[in-house]
Amino acid sequence: MSTDDVKKMQVVVLISGSGSNLQALIDGAASGELPISIAAVISNRPDVFGLTRASQAGIPTLVLDHKSFASREAFDAELMRQIDAYNPGLVVLAGFMRILTPEFTQHYLGRMLNIHPSLLPKFQGLNTHQRALDAGEKHHGVTVHFVTAELDGGPAAIQAAVPVLPTDDASLLAKRVQRQEHVIYPLAVKWFAEGKLRMVDSKAELNGELLPASGYRIEANEP
Q1: ω into residue 46 within 30 of 0, thus cis?
Q2: CATH superfamily membership of 3-219
Q3: In a 3-state reduction of DSSP, which class is residue 184?
Q4: How many Cα atoms occupy the beta-carbon half-sphere of 111 within 13 Å?
C-alpha cells in the first residue's frame, strides 16, 4: 500500500452484474478525482463482467454465491465477515441485487450507499423505467441513498432527474438514466469520503445542512 492509499478512504463495492457504476468509481479513483481506494469487489454471482472490470484494475475480487448458503441470514453473516476484513469506511452497493437483513443494514448504518433507478420515494423495487412510463411521469431519474432496513427507503443523498420523452420506451429511458448514474454515484462517494455527506438521525446532511427528502437534486435536461 502506498502512502497515497493510506490517506484514501477504503471502500468495498458489492455487485451482481456488469458493474457499469463500479467502472465509474474505478475511473474516478484512478484519475484521483475520488479520494478512495477500492479495497475489494464482492459479487454474489459468479462470472459477471463486473469481476472482470475489477481484475483488470488490479482490485481483489471475491465471489460469494448466495445459492451456496442455507439462508439469507447465513449469507449476510459471511458477507459481513468478508467485508469487515478490509475495515472499509464505506460500503457501496453497485447493482447488488440482494435484499439485505436488518442485522446487515444496521451493522453498516450510515456508511453504506445504494443507487436506485428512480426518483425515490417513487418506484421502489424493480422495473422502474417501465413503471414510470406506465404512470405517465414527466420526469424520471436516479437516486443515491443511504441504506437502511427499509428496501430503497433510506435517506436520499442526491438525485438526477431526466425528462421523459414522447418517444421513450423503457430501454431508451434506462440508457439516459444510466448516464446520470455514472455522474451522481461518484459524486456521492466523493462527498462521503471527504466528510461532507453524512447520515445523522436517519436523515442525510451535506456540509452540515439537512438535505430535503429528495436529496441534492440535479436536473439533467439532456435529450
Answers
A1: no
A2: Formyl transferase, N-terminal domain (3.40.50.170)
A3: helix
A4: 17
Position of cell 466523493? 190
For 176-196, give one letter per residue: b (16+ CB within 10 A) or e: bbeebbbebbbbbbbbbbeee
- The pTM of the full predicted model, rounded to 2 decimals, is 0.95
Residue 50 is placed in which grid cell? 463486473
Residues forming the active site: 116
* Burial readout 114-151 (b: 16 or more C-beta within 10 A, e: otherwise): bbbbbbbeebeeeebbebbbeeebeebbbbbbbbbeee
Give me the residue label for grid cell 439533467: 220
Each residue's pLDDT tens digit, 128-176: 999 999 999 999 999 999 999 998 999 999 999 999 999 999 999 999 9
Residue pointed to by grid coordinates 469481476: 51
The H-assigned helical ranges of 58-201 are 72-84, 102-107, 128-134, 170-193
Going by C-beta distance under 8 Å and a sequence separation of 6 or more, which residues neighbour residue 20? 95, 178, 181, 182
